[in-house]
Design brief:
By secondary structure, the chain is an alpha+beta fold. The chain has 2 domains: 4-170, Aminotransferase class 4, branched-chain amino acid transferase, N-terminal domain (D-amino Acid Aminotransferase, Chain A, domain 1, 2-Layer Sandwich); 181-344, D-amino Acid Aminotransferase, Chain A, domain 2, CATH 3.20.10. It has helices spanning 14-22, 64-67, 90-103, 111-124, 203-207, 210-218, 264-275, 287-295, 331-344, and strands at 3-5, 33-40, 44-52, 70-72, 75-79, 85-88, 139-148, 161-170, 181-185, 223-227, 235-238, 242-247, 252-255, 280-283, 299-306, 310-319, 322-324, 355-357. Helix 3 crosses helix 4. The protein starts with a strand and ends with a strand. The mean pLDDT is 97. The structure holds pyridoxal-5'-phosphate and 2-OXO-4-methylpentanoic acid. Pyridoxal-5'-phosphate (PLP) binds next to helix 7.
């Protein structure tokens, strides 16, 4: 892919950037540039460019605004102590986007083009990748996304599609950092049904989660737990994270996929736990098991995982009729978290070959 670059003449000055990077929050500050490429049936992917970050022009009839034909990815660029900059398993994000493209009837973006686009933006905006002299975990969050930009109100797959990448320095997703998060169980709303879009990373899934997320906030919780749509019995995932359950006998369970998002953090943790000597069981996991096995003390830890949240211990589960207290321990959770971030930040050897150097 040929990428043209127009540098911004109004890049953020060093003092302002230092202030932003000292306390980046999540998803509020964006870098000086963005990547864009367009697709039409006749031309394929064309006009790849890096331009100054800024608002885009979209026709009010652009299909995405009406029918939500849109997908996205979430990943991070990490600065190592020697100044180099790396992404974590970028091909896995690219491959998941290809699967999302198929589900949303969007044109496939080749894996190599996805990785090249991300690399190009990170390279141009490399000064936005935070350093962590204090051993912290700040990184540059990357948001590749694709949407139906065609001006057309008929309901069919769009014939003009835009793929973009934007980037935003990020600290902890949850205000408390790695402190346990409390969860709200929604028994009214579901996220994805059989044949639906649950396994795709598409805006519609997040739109449908918001009313439940609002309920969670109203109950003093950070995230929502969704159950399967068919029987309302099995734990699927959170609004933006996958789940793990650890038992006192060394058994570890993560809900099976199908209608949940196949998290790259989730998949990586299966391998990390394997190296630690644990075997992870991917299976249906009942909400009753959660209640019973925390009560009996057999479940010792529960944690949530995802790019934005990394690995975060789960505290209390709140439900309409009470809920379930926080499991006893966070020891394994913190070990898994450490093992993962040590690879991402280059503080441990990358024995899995997961890291991809950009700068
Ligand atoms: N589940 C949902 C609904 C998500 O939005 C995310 C975040 O991306 C995840 C799971 C975790 O996926 P990953 O580990 O690839 O970030
Ligand atoms: C991510 O972890 O990348 C996500 O998309 C989750 C979202 C809650 C920010």
């Amino acid at each position: 892919m040929q990428i043209s670059t127009t540098l911004s003449s109004t890049q953020v000055d060093d003092a302002t950037l230092a202030e932003i990077l000292a306390n980046p929050g999540f998803g509020t500050n964006f870098t000086d540039h963005m990547f864009t490429v367009e697709w039409t049936p006749a031309q394929g992917w064309h006009d790849a460019r890096i331009t100054p970050y800024g608002p885009i022009t979209l026709d009010p009839a652009a299909a995405v605004l009406h029918y939500a034909q849109e997908i996205f990815e979430g990943m991070k660029a990490y600065r190592h102590a020697d100044g180099s900059v790396w992404t974590f398993r970028p091909e896995a994000n690219a491959e998941r986007m290809v699967r999302s493209c198929e589900r949303l009837a969007l044109p496939e973006l080749p894996v190599a083009d996805f990785v090249q686009a991300v690399d190009a933006l990170v390279e141009v905006d490399q000064r936005w990748v935070p350093t962590n002299p204090d051993g912290g975990e700040k990184a540059l969050y990357l948001r590749p996304f694709m949407f139906a930009s065609e001006k057309f109100l008929g309901v069919r797959p769009a014939e003009h599609v835009t793929f973009m990448v934007i980037a935003s320095p990020a600290g902890a997703y949850f205000k408390g950092g790695a402190k346990p998060v409390n969860l709200w169980l929604t028994e009214e709303y579901t996220r994805a049904g059989r044949g639906g879009m649950g396994a795709a990373k598409t805006g519609g899934n997040y739109a449908s989660s918001l009313v439940a997320q609002r309920e969670a906030y109203a109950h003093g919780c950070d995230q929502v737990v969704f159950l399967d749509a068919e029987e309302g019995k099995y734990v699927e995932e959170l609004g933006g994270m996958n789940l793990y359950f650890a038992y006192d006998d060394g058994t570890i369970v993560t809900p099976e996929t199908g209608t949940i998002l196949e998290g790259i953090t989730r998949a990586s943790i299966i391998e990390i736990l394997g190296k630690m000597g644990y075997q992870v069981s991917e299976r249906k996991f009942g909400i009753d098991e959660w209640r019973t096995d925390v009560a009996s003390g057999r479940i010792t830890e529960i944690f949530a995982c995802g790019t934005a949240a990394v690995v975060t211990p789960v505290g209390t589960l709140k439900t309409r009729d009470g809920g379930s207290p926080a499991p006893a321990s966070t020891e394994l959770t913190m070990k898994v978290r450490q093992a993962l971030v040590d690879v991402q930040f280059g503080r441990a050897e990358d024995t899995f070959g997961w890291m991809h150097q950009i700068v």
